[in-house]
Each structure stands twice: as C-alpha cells, then as structure tokens.
Amino acid sequence: MKDNQAKYPQLRFKCFTDPWEQRKLEKLVDVRSGHDYKHLNRGNIPVYGTGGYMLSVDKALSENEDAIGIGRKGTIDNPFLLKAPFWTVDTLFYVVPRVDYNFLDLKLKCNTCSTRPVLYSD
How many angstroms separate the CA atoms of 3 and 101, rounded? Predict the structure, then answer.
C-alpha cells in the first residue's frame, strides 16, 4: 500500500493524474556550460549571465536549441527561458530539454542552508 501511495503523491502538477515515474535527470535534459564571451565581437546574438541579458555578440553558443538558464551561484532558484540563438557566460549553466518542457513550472527549490546556493556539474 505504501508503494502505491508513493506513485500517487498528494502534491501534484495541475491536470496530472497518472502515476509518477522515477527518471534520471540526464534522460530529461542535457546540461551544458556557458563560456567567456570577451573574445567575440559586438553583434545581435544576446549574451546571458546569472542576472539575465548582458549585451549582444556576433556568435551563438546555441544556434537553434532553446534552453533553460540556471545560475551556478546565488540565482539557482531563478531559472529563465533562453530562446535560440544565444550565448551564455561561464557562471550560467543551460539545460536543453530532451522532452517537451512547456508543461513545466520553472520554479526550482534549492537548499537554503547556504547564504549563497551553488550548483555544480559533473
């Protein structure tokens, strides 16, 4: 009975009635890192950091894949949508969904034991 309750938890996404399935995060998203932009020229491709838009450059890190930007330090709880083409700096991870992400509520919870939450990638 307890196993069945775990598949039908009380906290649910709106309109979701099917049992929950456990999945590895790598099956749902591809986690990528940003890079330094200072070697690039000015252009019309937006560059994003942990605080959002910074400036525009002439080269894209992601040409045609939309993504979700997740800050590594301090802003891990404030993800935002990145529409391709874009470039991200090295303090901003971005995840490219392997599944349809339009149904997701992009509000992440983080450990608040730290005054500055940090996200690491392997």
Answer: 28
- For 77-117, the DSSP string reads T--EEEPSSBEE-TTEEEEEESS--TT--------TTSSS-
Sheet holding 29-33, edge to edge: 29-33, 92-97, 67-71, 80-82
For the record, the structure tokens of 93 come out as: 């991870």
Model pTM? 0.68
DSSP 14-39: TT--SPP----HHHHEEEEE----TT
pLDDT attached to residue 32: 93
* Length of the chain, in residues: 122
